[in-house]
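Notebook entry, structure prediction.
Reason for the run: the old model in the group folder had no record of what sequence produced it. Starting over properly, with the input documented here first.
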Amino acid sequence: MRSAVGTFTSPAATGTQEIVVSLCGLAPKAVIIWGTQQTAAGVATKVHFSIGFATSSTNRAAIACNEDLALTLDDDRYHDITAVIVTTSSVDFSPATVLEKADLDSFSANKFTLDWETVDAAAIRYHYIAIAGADVEANVVQFIAQTVDATSQDVPHGLTGGAPTAFFGISAANIAAPPSSDGAGQMDMTIMASDMTNDQIAGVGAAGGTASRMQLALALGHSQPSGILEKATITAVDATNVTFLWSVADTAEYYYALFLRGVNAEVGTYTSPATPGNVTITPTGFNPNLFVTWGFMGTTSAVQESDSRLTFGASDGTNHAAGGLLVESGLGTADKFDSSTNVLSVYDHAQALEETATATIVDGDVTVVFGSAVAAANEFNYLILGPPETEVPGAPPDIPIAGPAGTRVEIVAWVPVE
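New structure, fully documented this time:
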């Protein structure tokens, strides 16, 4: 498995756009793309956050949320299954307007190609994660939440080679079939992941002049200021289905899943330091090459907290990207932020930078390097991916090497002799 993280801007005209990625000559098997409708890194007013993923030109999904002016009724949420990118804007009680929309055209060696149906006059920044590998299989699945508490739901994952080892999910809590906008003054955005044993979720909601956020050990969920409306965990995984148990159900809302196999995965949480410093995460049993992190700038609890705050970022150990949003109840502020140099960038409601971090991936460890920090211990989720650790038939046996103490020999290739 190989991965790459990077940043690009939308083109000036519709049509195809090639995005070159560093994958050692491999073609991607899946891409994740996100953005905050910004033309430059840093912080800006008005909330927008969009995220989507794709495995082919016919297997993709994207969602977006907006808050044009905090605590008015121009919150909006949008979802689409004909695009990997949707960037939208909204005004009071009106359906979202699509500013930019792109589908995945194709994958090829060291690149993916987008087909832009709609572009804005401004060159909007987007960030990507590209995942490749001979053993990697990926599939995007749309499903609808259950509406009765304590209901199990089998979701076919669509992988032909066996059960998934990782799940990455998104939802804007839309009810109408895609592509569509659910306006009426409500914003939602939830990001989820699971390694099929450990689940983590973080999401935000805003409606009726108030804003909220949640972070829980769940596979699926949705919240609004009125409370956490949905909760589900993964209870079983097999060659056909992933089974979710809805301990708390709400309305029939749309969820989107990117299922992966042929990768090792670990999902968990870490806490930022009170002063600039490092946090090291060592996944169990494999060497990582992709670090994805997201959170709501608080600590996991059974109830949501006030204000909407969400950050999402990724690193391949060399390249980093992050984006997020914040809406504060009562004060009427709504902002978004973007970075192509940090895996985390966290701002407060006065647009002051609170926390920044990059990441390194060396010798089996992911080290989150906080260049700035706050006294409050913020908790963040992580999804770490790496190649499957398998024995290769024909691999050489242990070979004695004569040399000084500490001599290290690395075998990078071998040819079995018949």
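Summary: The two ends are 28 Å apart (CA to CA).
The old model has been moved to the deprecated folder.
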